Amino acid sequence: MGAASIFECDVTKDDDLARLKTPGRLDAVVHSIAFANREDLARPLVETSRAGYLLAQEVSAYSMIAVAERRLR
């Protein structure tokens, strides 16, 4: 893609998110993340644990907000 910079980030770690706050222009963010516990994926949806559901939402959806927020500060 010819990117000048690429940032690796574990979106479950605040330290990794904090490293995203860098000066300069940002032209694009690729957010291609989805995660769920294997146990929760192996059983019917209605048997998903609350903790498993919240983890899946945090990693798969909220992480985009967390990434954008770090870049906009």
Low-confidence stretches: none
Helix content: 40-55%
Give the biggest sheet.
Answer: none
* Order of helical and strand elements: HHH
Q: Mean pLDDT, nearest integer? A: 87
Rg from alpha-carbon coordinates: 15 Å
Approximately how much beta-strand content do the residues carry? Answer: under 5%
Structural class: mainly alpha
Shape: elongated
Counted beta strands: 0
- Straight-line distance between termini: 26 Å
Secondary structure tally, helices = 3
Task: Explain what you see.
The chain is mostly helical and 73 residues long. The chain has helices at residues 14-18, 38-41, 50-72. The longest helix has 23 residues, at 50-72. The chain is 44% helix and 0% strand.
In brief:
The protein has 73 residues and is mainly α.
Descriptive terms for the model:
73 residues; mainly alpha
